[in-house]
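Note to self: keep these together.
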Amino acid sequence: MLGPKQDQNVGSGAIAVQAARDVHMGMSFTEVRELCQLLVENNFPALRAEAKAAAEERVRQFAAELEQRIIDASAQIDPNKFRDPDVQACLNDAVLAAARRGEAANTEVLCTLVTERVSAQASPFKDIVLSEAVQVVPKLTAQHISMLSLTFFIQSVVFSNIPHLTVLEGPAQQLKPLLERCGGLSYSQKQHVQYAGACSYINVTITDPYEVLRKAYHQFEHPNTESLKIQLGEEAPTFLEMVELYRTNELWCITPTSVGQAIAISALSSKLPIFNFSTWLK
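Structure:
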């Protein structure tokens, strides 16, 4: 880390202001990559050579992915936040997870969460949730994240004022590779996601997702759920397939927490960039 009186080379993406002495705001993308490497070195000082090499390679891959993600989102990034100890702690959690588990730590989701953590669109609550989500994601499998994503998509996402149900087909097709992984999760796995802090699981009452959708899209005036299913089958078959996956896996028993919502939004936004964290985390 640079001291307060040291000069700093400004790389791509850094913000520098020239004053009577060198005044620099934020960190360059190169420094973010170097910080990731420093964090793994400080946290794994006693690893055997083979394990250390594997951890360092995983961190290099994670840092490269994070760097590119930050560059792509540079217009929405506040580089000053990299100086915030809480942000660096969040980054540290992500780096350690990547070093320990590699892609199994769900590094794509971690990169999205860290990038959003340094977004200019911040709030105290959102920052807390994102930091917590970074700690929870490595405790989940890709199938768990798929379950959270499908649950969130069916329960919380309504496409407002659509002229016809065919509008639902495009998003469903784009999200299908992510959402279809969740089939067949056992009771114990759902309980684990609850234990990790990403959802609550209450298997008490049965909620018909088609009745919920019939009310959400009331403008189509379907007299019953069977009428809605018929039209979905004709105009949005992939969306219908996702609703059936939700129903047959009894995901109405799942309610994502704020952390679970953040994880779901991270995963969904990588496939369909219409999901805004600030819309739900407020």
